[in-house]
Amino acid sequence: MGKQGNNSFMGHIRPRQIRTGALRLRATFCLGGFSFLAFIVLTITGVLLLFYYQPGDRAFASLSELNSVLPYGGFVRSLHFWAGQMMVISVFMHMVRVVWSRAYRPLRELNWITGVVLFGLTVILDYSGYLLRGGQESGAAATVGQALFTSLPGGQALATVFFGQPSPLNGSTLNMFVWHAFILAGAVGFLQLFHFWRIRRGGGVRPL
Amino acid sequence: MDLLEGERTQAPAEVEQSGRQEKVPLIELQVREYIGTFLWLGFLLALTASVKVPLDSSPKAAAVSISKAPWVFGAIQWLLQQWPAWLSGWVLPLLSMAVLFTLPWWGQKVGKMWVWIIFLILSLVWVGLTFLYMFMG
Fold first, then answer.
1. Closest CA relative to residue A119, chosen from B116, B48, B122, B10
2. A26-201 — its CATH code?
């Protein structure tokens, strides 16, 4: 980094010195940081689940084995589930705090818009994860989602791209798996880093 | 420039005056973040250990009539039971997202108090519908 330190990405994310006002916990209640922490937990547990989970027809069976046979398999799956739910809640609470403190105002519009996109993607990630459970409930949820897409003009193609060919008894497909584990998760990861960089660049060094 | 730097009052090594607010080393913030991280992880681990996440109904079991959405889509599912799909599944959610996206613009047009009221109403409606779906089906 050298002399360019404060202009670089890390310089913005982690400046050497901060204003004392940034130490107030109630400035953010750490809700953005908790969301990111949930994402880190989700990434780690998600990678662990990748070693055993099989999308498609074997989804339910692989999860069932993982849950009951593999040491700590059920724990890792539960951790992944609860981190996902807590991420949705903390992202929403973070938005409430941002609106309350009027941190959406000019110069920070792009942060706000990125945050809204992140909220939408987090909700879709939660939904796609639900479909990957591969049971009858996930099949029913996939059917509702497919029906919503096909109600649009040209929606059949979109539904196929996003859902693949799920059965009413099993919502897990390779398409949904790729969206959940790679595309959506990758987009959320990238946007979060961009979001943090923008916040720090605007001078908003606070408890994350 | 060097002369001005030389005349400046020396601040303590770890604290530098800047405008109205003092500056402190980043470690002060990091300590708070570490404490928050440990507390949050503790809560998550306690939640994971105490509330078991059940599996879905097996696809090989006898088919049961299920129309259950994950809780995050509970509000949309509830609306779908009342109104047409195009309205409940597309127009209302996308309209709500459009309001959220344009909040900074609304702030300049109608003022901060109205922005808060708009956001609060929007949030309460969606959260309320989610609870309605979760507890009343």
1. B122
2. 1.20.810.10
